[in-house]
Amino acid sequence: NGRTHGMTHRIVFMYTLGVDMVDEDAIDPNKNEVFWSKMQNYVEEWGSGYSGRILSWQEGDTEANPDVHIWDIKVANQNQFKEGHDKIISEFAEDFAGRVAGFGTYDINHPNGATHWVGISGEGTHDHVMLLDKLQSQSEFIKMLAERGQVENVRDYMIKNLKQY
């Protein structure tokens, strides 16, 4: 699911834009170098890296909902899509309760030409399909999808959140 060239894991760093992820004095530079040297023992080959921004984010319970369905998409109008995305999450708050729900950009290294991504967490594949089935059976949800503007789905995949710090 979402694997590129047989990759099995990914490391995601999320932090506030413009703010150092870790205080300058928090990690001894020598220990940091040793950590990444040891990490190389577990990595056969590094995959592609991407950088972007989170434009919308709803925190959720990642222990109860560790599986994340990610859509890589091409969005015609970022502001229109964000407004529509936020409205969907708000209007269907009960359905998205406890779930991570995010929307963001790919600003550097666009996977398969995607400009943006959407991620929704859940308990597992069955839970995700049940959520889609419930939402897509409601005319108001379908109307809101259209109001987000022109969107091209590039690909979608599932990941499992194994650890979060």
Describe the 3D structure:
The protein has 165 residues and is α+β, with helices and mostly antiparallel strands. It contains five helices and five strands. It has helices at residues 29-39, 78-91, 93-96, 125-136, 139-147; strands at 54-58, 67-75, 101-105, 116-122, 151-160. It has a five-stranded antiparallel β-sheet. Helix 2 (78-91) packs antiparallel against helix 5 (139-147). The longest helix is centred in the middle third of the chain and has 14 residues, at 78-91. The radius of gyration is 18 Å and the shape is globular. The two termini are 23 Å apart. The mean pLDDT is 90.
Can I get a quick summary?
This protein is α+β, with helices and mostly antiparallel strands and about 160 residues long. Helix content is about 30%, strand content about 20%.
Comma- or semicolon-separated keywords:
165 residues, globular, alpha+beta, 30% helix, 5 helices, five-stranded antiparallel sheet
User: Which strand-content bin applies to the residues?
Assistant: 15-25%
Overall pLDDT metric: 90
Poorly predicted regions? none
- State the share of residues found in helices, binned by percent: 25-40%
Q: Looking at the structure, what is the overall shape? A: globular
Secondary-structure map:
Elements (H helix, E strand, L loop, with lengths): L28 H11 L14 E5 L8 E9 L2 H14 L1 H4 L4 E5 L10 E7 L2 H12 L2 H9 L3 E10 L5
Antiparallel strand pairs: 1-3, 2-4, 2-5, 3-4
Helix pairs in contact: 2-5
